[in-house]
TrEMBL record:
Stored SUPFAM superfamilies: Metalloproteases ('zincins'), catalytic domain
Peptidase M3A/M3B catalytic domain: residues covered: 262-693
Species in which this protein is naturally found: Erythranthe guttata
Protein's name according to its UniProt entry: Peptidase M3A/M3B catalytic domain-containing protein
GO cellular component terms, semicolon-separated: cytoplasm
Cross-referenced PROSITE patterns: TAT
Protein's GO biological process: peptide metabolic process; proteolysis
Compartments where located: Cytoplasm
GO molecular function: metal ion binding; metalloendopeptidase activity
Entry similarity comment: Belongs to the peptidase M3 family.
Protein's UniProt keywords contain tRNA processing: no
Length: 695
């Protein structure tokens, strides 16, 4: 037994020596993976297909569509008086479970492959599958059969009831309970909404507006930023009104132009005036959304958007946002007073405007906190951070991580890990780590569910996840280091991995990360807290030239204070946009410019909106992806803060609380109401107070 334990690459160790061993182990395994050219082996329990050619991807997509059509045809043929779980719900549930990893086998190569042909095939395969799924969601014959089963009320258990009702709701949100005339109108509305949404985004993407500044007007900006700017004919600098140019100027530019104000103001005003044509596009879009919502039986679009989410109603969202905003007012007033005083000292009697917030918040935080983030980075070697994250999750959630040797992967830097229950040894799932930068790969850190867990007919399918990032593996022959923001981001995304692996929902539909958007971010936001506590920071840090020396206590304290300092005003600004989004989707014929002016003065403590700007014309979140749901990120952050403060703040590695969270919140997935899960875990309904106190 002892020899077997030594042979395995197990990441379930304890103590500082173990962490050092794990970090060395990571480095050694990376070298071995690079040198190992032996034939890779399949992964037991995973139906994800790796390294498909372009033609294989397209053939698999066609097979998926054909098999899905066959199952849907079979369900549609069931007589309405003969419907049972076995001939209606079970075939659809099995189809979802079996086909999801195959669908992802077609879809995920576009994120990781350097081959143009494979990426094109992946995109085309996804298009074919999406088109088929859309057709299936509008099949009246299947809807009638599922509806007949649901109407019987002959539930085997609550999960089957939730599954059947969820199917019915999806069909009905596609208008299958409407007359044919109204259904055709719904199709027209959806097409018009899609066209206007894309036009709004296209207008923003096509905007090439720029401003010209001389070097004096850009004082304070680093030389490397100035070198990145194009030059005008007169030798001055062209600042394109895109976030990668605008953000550094708003944060760093010191220049004050007499009688005009600052360069920051000039840039902020121009940035806020972009795409004025989008105002009329958004107004038409909102009108169409309200028509769609009313056609489906809702009072307005906000009610439609929140109906199947944790918030449940637009009224609940308004109450939540207004309560958070009011509770932050005292802190925000103190922050604003300090910022105004700082501007008077720096620039004289120019009035303080919203455009000054990034610059003076950055300045005051630098004055208050002696934090050199370049030096902080020296304490976060990638391999040590990973081993520390594994250790935190092992101790907290009772998990064991073991690298799978010689697994088939798509690049030599990719690693595959098995996850086991630390106590029973049960194999819970797999995850791939594809975290090192290379050309052609998706540019952001994210988690992709490759195979959802399920338990149908006593057959357990284990979950498989993929974590993608773009971290530098080596720099000048030295191990890669992580910026602190990258450490927090990696912790956050690994929270999604843990959530995916620990999910024990019986149906694939309720497994993985296909959960209520108001809820799915809560576990990951919770895990971010371990990046700001001394005991856990020491687990994931070590000076890159001597990893036995973790980050010091004073830096740990500064990072924690820095996280929440001057956050009330910033959060109020976000609430302003959330309220605007909720109001326009709750009311018709809103004067959007007037509304923004009113909200800005009210929420931002009298700070006026920049004259001549129109934020509604350049607010893409309310157009695609977060329409009537911009509140969701704050919602998740509030409840994550409540969980951390109540259960973990005073006992960071309380495994009883961690296992209770795993079993009560992570395991049920979408098979249980999120508010009920959180209330069961906390022993009461969630509260906003912990979040407010932290700000």
């Amino acid at each position: 037994m002892e020899n077997e334990r030594k042979r395995r690459n197990v990441l379930a160790l304890t103590g500082a020596a173990a962490l050092l061993a794990v970090a060395v182990n990571f480095a050694a395994s990376a070298v071995n993976a690079h040198l190992n050219n032996r034939k890779r082996k399949a992964v037991p329990g995973s139906n994800v297909r790796i390294n498909l050619s372009a033609s294989e991807i397209l053939r698999l997509a066609d097979h998926i569509v054909a098999k899905s059509k066959e199952v849907h045809d079979a369900v549609a043929s069931v007589p309405l008086d003969k419907v049972t779980y076995a001939n209606t719900i079970l075939p659809l549930a099995e189809l979802e479970a079996h086909q999801f990893p195959l669908v992802q086998s077609c879809a995920f190569p576009k994120l990781v492959s350097a081959s143009e042909d494979i990426c094109k095939a992946s995109i085309e395969a996804e298009r074919r599958i999406d088109a088929h799924v859309s057709r299936c969601s509008k099949r009246e014959d299947v809807y009638r059969v599922v509806k007949a089963f649901a109407a019987r009320g002959d539930w085997m258990n609550s999960e089957v009831k939730r599954f059947a009702n969820n199917l019915v709701q999806e069909f009905e949100r596609n208008g299958l309970n409407l007359t044919s005339t109204k259904r055709e109108e719904l199709l027209r509305l959806n097409a018009q909404i899609d066209e206007l949404s894309m036009r709004y985004i296209r207008n923003l993407n096509d905007d090439t507006t720029f401003l010209i500044f001389n070097e004096t007007e850009l004082v304070g900006l680093p030389p490397e930023f100035l070198k990145s700017l194009d030059k005008a004919e007169n030798g001055n600098f062209k600042v394109v009104l895109r976030s990668h140019h605008v953000s550094p100027i708003l944060e760093l530019c010191k220049s004050v132009i007499l009688k005009v104000g600052s360069t920051r103001k000039s840039v902020a005003v121009a940035y806020g005036r972009r795409c004025e044509v989008n105002l009329s596009v958004l107004e038409k879009l909102i009108q169409l959304r309200h028509k769609l919502a009313r056609l489906l039986g809702y009072l307005n679009y906000a009610e439609y958007a929140t109906d199947r989410r944790m918030a449940n109603s637009s009224a609940k969202v308004f109450e939540f946002l207004e309560k958070i905003s009011a509770s932050l007012t005292e802190s925000a007033l103190k922050e604003l007073s300090l910022l105004k005083e700082l501007k008077r000292k720096e620039e004289g009697e120019f009035p303080f405007g919203v455009e000054d917030l990034p610059y003076y918040v950055k300045m005051i935080k630098e004055q208050q906190f002696d934090l050199d983030f370049g030096l902080v980075k020296q304490y976060f070697p990638i391999t040590l951070v990973l081993s520390g994250i594994f250790k935190v999750c092992q101790d907290l959630f009772g998990l064991r991580f073991e690298q799978v040797a010689d697994a088939e992967v798509w690049h030599q830097d990719v690693q595959l890990y098995s996850v086991f229950d630390l106590s029973s040894g049960e194999h819970m799932g797999y995850f791939y780590l594809d975290i090192y930068s290379r050309g052609g790969k998706y540019g952001h850190t994210c988690v992709v569910a490759l195979q959802n867990g399920s338990s149908i007919n006593s057959s357990r399918q284990i979950p498989v996840a993929l974590l993608i990032s773009q971290l530098q593996k080596e720099v000048d022959g030295n191990p890669g280091l992580m910026r602190f923001s990258e450490v927090v981001n990696l912790f956050h995304e690994f929270g999604h991995v843990v959530h995916h692996i620990c999910n024990r929902a019986p149906f694939a539909r309720f497994s993985g990360l296909r959960l209520d958007p108001d809820f799915v971010e809560i576990p990951s936001l919770l895990l971010e807290n371990w990046c700001y506590e001394s005991s856990s920071l020491k687990l994931i840090s070590g000076f890159h030239q001597d990893i036995t020396k973790p980050i010091d206590d004073e830096t740990c304290k500064s990072l924690k204070r820095w996280r929440c300092s001057f956050s009330a005003l910033k959060l109020k600004q976000e609430i302003l946009y959330c309220l605007f989004d909720q109001i326009i989707h709750s009311n018709e014929n809103v004067d959007m410019i007037g509304l923004f002016n009113h909200l800005h003065s009210k929420i931002m403590l009298g700070l006026p909106m920049l004259e001549g700007t129109n934020p509604a014309s350049c607010f893409p979140r309310t157009v695609i992806g977060y329409e009537a749901t911009c509140y969701s990120r704050i919602w998740s952050e509030v409840f994550a803060a409540d969980i951390f403060t109540t259960k973990f703040r005073d006992d960071l590695f309380n495994q009883n609380a961690g296992m209770h969270f795993r079993n009560t919140v992570l395991a049920p997935g979408g098979a249980k109401d999120p508010l009920e899960m959180l209330s069961d875990f906390l022993g009461r309904e969630p509260s906003i107070q912990a979040f407010v106190d932290s700000k």
